Amino acid sequence: KAGVTQTPRYLIKTRGQQVTLSCSPISGHRSVSWYQQTPGQGLQFLFEYFSETQRNKGNFPGRFSGRQFSNSRSEMNVSTLELGDSALYLCASRPTSGTYNEQFFGPGTRLTVL
Amino acid sequence: AQSVTQPDIHITVSEGASLELRCNYSYGATPYLFWYVQSPGQGLQLLLKYFSGDTLVQGIKGFEAEFKRSQSSFNLRKPSVHWSDAAEYFCAVGVAGGGNKLTFGTGTQLKVEL
Fold first, then answer.
1. CB < 8 Å from B in window 18-37 of A
2. Which residues are paired to A20 by β-bridges?
3. Nearest CA to A42 among B78, B75, B38?
4. Is the separation of the CB atoms in A5 and A109 below 8 Å?
5. Distance (Å) from the C-alpha of residue A43 to the closest C-alpha of chain B?
6. Contact B104 A105 (CB under 8 A)
7. How many angstroms separate the CA atoms of A44 and A109, rounded?
8. Residue range B60-111, pLDDT digits in tens
9. CA dist., res. A105 & res. A101, Å (int)
10. In Å, what is the CA distance from A14 to each residue of A86, A114, B50?
């Protein structure tokens, strides 16, 4: 089975722009979560989607949004980029069966805001 | 709210030596506990997990961890470290009903001296 894929892997934007990142979960996984990783704040939960519905949201401003499509692929969008949004954005998917929280992470998208 | 503490930011060990990475969590009930490893420029790979049952869990790459409720700890161990183990290690906690949300520690950077 292919793992979680994220595109693009690297992205450079300037302040004020917006950006969209994409995540394709492992085949059969219906739950997708997003995390932000920065040297200062570490790994922080952004949001979780299951069956096209946002199930959980972290403590991030409204500039951060996401969605999930019927094929379970997910996108996250950041509007009005700030320098502090520079980070590695990780996507994770979860198996549909079982009640555990085990997640499988993608390689991430490295976003640099200039 | 749950929290995770990894007291050691950096650890250096010699190849062949034993390793123990510390992790303490704060949560009122029994949490789900995970150890992930991240190599430079990569996503997170799950080493092992604890949900219930036997408090000593075995993972991949020769790692094991022991859940100690009385100490709120979930320390990661390896009897003999290999140079390829050099990476950053993250302890994480999930909670029942929390869906995909994981709370991560700040990570421990492991350096292996040859």
1. 31-33, 35
2. A77
3. B38
4. no
5. 6
6. no
7. 15
8. 999 999 999 999 999 999 999 999 999 999 999 987 766 678 899 999 999 9
9. 12
10. 10, 5, 42
